[in-house]
Design a protein that fits this description.
With about 80 residues, the protein is an alpha+beta fold. About 45% of the residues lie in helices and about 20% in strands. It has a three-stranded antiparallel sheet.
Length: about 80
């Protein structure tokens, strides 16, 4: 459902998301994307659990990284 809404907004040229480079978190060279900072915190924590289970980053540290390093991504119709 959420992906369909994002896709529709993207097709209409009005989707804005937040992103953070993994270089700020785990240095694995991925980019994580989500709707809003809270979604980005959740996506980052999930990424860490799945791909870097021994990473010593807790939720509070991830939240600080997202709040200081995240940026907007705007999808536009080309």
């Amino acid at each position: 459902m959420k992906e369909a809404m994002a896709m529709r907004a993207m097709q209409e040229g009005e989707a804005t998301m937040r992103a953070v480079l993994c270089a700020s978190v785990c240095n694995c060279r991925h980019t994580l994307r989500a709707d809003g900072d809270e979604g980005l915190v959740e996506a980052t924590l999930e990424h860490l659990r799945r791909n870097h289970p021994v990473a010593p980053l807790g939720e509070e540290r991830v939240r600080l990284i997202v709040l200081s390093c995240a940026y907007d991504i705007e999808y536009a119709r080309v």
